[in-house]
Design brief:
heterodimer, A: mainly alpha, 3 helices, 92% helix, rod-shaped, B: alpha+beta, Peroxidase, domain 1, 2 domains, 4-stranded mixed sheet, 4 strands, 16% strand, globular
Chain lengths: 177, 174
């Protein structure tokens, strides 16, 4: 039939319809038949496809909505996590500050204690050194004084003095009976 | 050692008494002991084991020959020859104690910077006798370290009236 149409078209008669009315009738009938077959065979499929499309679109919309909800939930989680991380970071920083202050206070306290101990030991050492120096000086002075006294006594122990000492001793022993 | 010193003192005492020269020997030994105490070189020489005994005894005889009796020289020479020269002062002191004890007296060793006269020794002996209730024989030792005054030792008792002790007390007072 198509070849007939093409053959008719190739001949041309100067009109838009074929000059043969039978050809028109049979062409129309063939056309109707072809359309009928198409509607008869393809209609249900098209109808089914058209009927399923809203559901599919609805499903896709629902899925999109779910995805959106999930994305929003994920976003909220991330925001929450970010907020938590900020607070955690702040807590860690605060704890670090607190630890640093505590350690600083402890170090300063230990330094004070150590300084006091060093000062105390130094005072004890100074006092000990002062006493030792005083004792040494006293001994030196006593030694020098004794040496000078011995020299003076020795120089003044003439025979008269010796005899006086001996007589005094004899008298003392005799008087202590 | 103390027992050996006592034994030597006892032996010397018995020999001197047997020879009948106890008082003389005791006096000469005391003077020799005093000289020995004052002379470090002599004391060291007589106690030196590296010097032959005969040489040490010869030194004693050279020192005391004509100045002390034969018994005294022999006794000192014997002690030095046996190598007990360093114990001689103790032996002499112990001999003095035994001699005094044999006559019922005690020996008072009196140290002074200058020698005491006989009168002073007699008066001191009288004073010590009155104090101790015993007859006392005074042995005077001239000891310059006393400086002045007297230090008397009777047995373990000491009566110290020396200038040296007063200076020591002065030092201890500081």
């Amino acid at each position: 039939m198509l070849s007939t149409i093409l053959a008719a078209e190739s001949e041309g008669n100067g009109f838009w319809l074929p000059h043969d009315i039978n050809e028109v009738i049979w062409g129309t009938i063939a056309f109707v038949i072809v359309v009928g077959v198409i509607v008869w065979k393809g209609g249900p499929a098209i109808k089914t496809a058209m009927a399923a499309r809203p559901e599919r679109i609805s499903g896709e919309l629902s899925a999109a909505t779910d995805a959106l909800s999930a994305a929003e939930a994920k976003r909220d989680d991330i925001k929450s996590a970010l907020a938590d991380s900020d607070s955690e970071a702040a807590r860690i920083v605060a704890e670090a500050h607190e630890t640093a202050e505590r350690l600083t206070a402890e170090i300063i306290e230990r330094a004070h204690v150590e300084a006091a101990s060093v000062r105390s030991r130094a005072l004890v050492d100074i006092e000990s050194s002062r006493r030792q120096a005083t004792t040494d000086l006293t001994h030196d002075i006593s030694r020098l004084a004794l040496g000078a006294a011995e020299q003076v006594v020795h120089n003044n122990l003439d025979d008269t003095t010796q005899q006086s000492l001996i007589e005094a001793y004899i008298a003392q022993v005799g008087s202590s009976n | 050692m103390e027992t050996r010193t006592d034994a030597y003192a006892e032996a010397l005492f018995n020999v001197a008494r047997a020879e009948g020269h106890l008082v003389e020997v005791e006096e000469e030994l005391f003077r020799f002991g005093t000289a020995l105490e004052a002379n470090d070189e002599l004391r060291t020489t007589l106690a030196d084991p590296h010097i032959p005994a005969a040489r040490r005894q010869q030194i004693v005889e050279d020192l005391l020959g004509g100045k002390a009796g034969g018994t005294t020289v022999a006794l000192i020479s014997m002690v030095v020859g046996t190598g007990r020269g360093h114990d001689l002062p103790k032996i002499i002191s112990e001999l003095g104690q035994r001699s005094a004890a044999s006559t019922g007296t005690v020996v008072a060793e009196v140290r002074s910077a200058v020698a005491l006269s006989d009168d002073q020794q007699a008066r001191l002996a009288t004073a010590i006798s009155a104090r101790t209730g015993q007859d006392v024989t005074v042995r005077n030792v001239v000891d310059p370290s006393v400086l002045g005054g007297i230090v008397t030792q009777i047995g373990d008792s000491i009566i110290d009236g020396s200038v040296r002790s007063r200076l020591t007390q002065l030092r201890d007072a500081f």
